[in-house]
Amino acid sequence: MKSFARVLHCGIAAAGFAVLSTAASAALVTIDQLPASTTVSAAGLNLNQTSDVQELYSRLSAAARQVCGPHALNGLPYHSTAFSQCYSETLAQSVAKVHSATLLAYHQKQTSAPFAVAAK
Q1: Distances (CA, A) of 92 to 45, 54, 109, 111
Q2: Domain locations in the chain?
Q3: Which residues pair with 7 in a beta bridge?
Q4: pLDDT, tens digit, for every residue of 78-119?
Q5: pTM, entire model
């Protein structure tokens, strides 16, 4: 696979994701009633290279943490079921929207769980 430029607009809400793609192979993930969103760029990454897969996954993970809100109180981390669910779902959906087998395999390895996206 050649290097490609793909931009994901990641956000989370209870509503489902919708994907719009163009001939330039850009993907846009949007959410109805977005409480927060951020942009993740995969420009210059080749998802056949492990280091690039890891880099994109790191970017998606950071974006999921950002859009799901704080998970610390006064600088100290705390467990929030809502944050954990939001983060897991956002990251999984973002990985799925990239449509990369190597990124999906990396996500499965990181989460140590089979990955399936329910059709909506």
Answers
A1: 19, 15, 12, 10
A2: 7-111
A3: 41
A4: 778 888 999 999 999 999 999 999 999 999 999 985 555 655
A5: 0.65
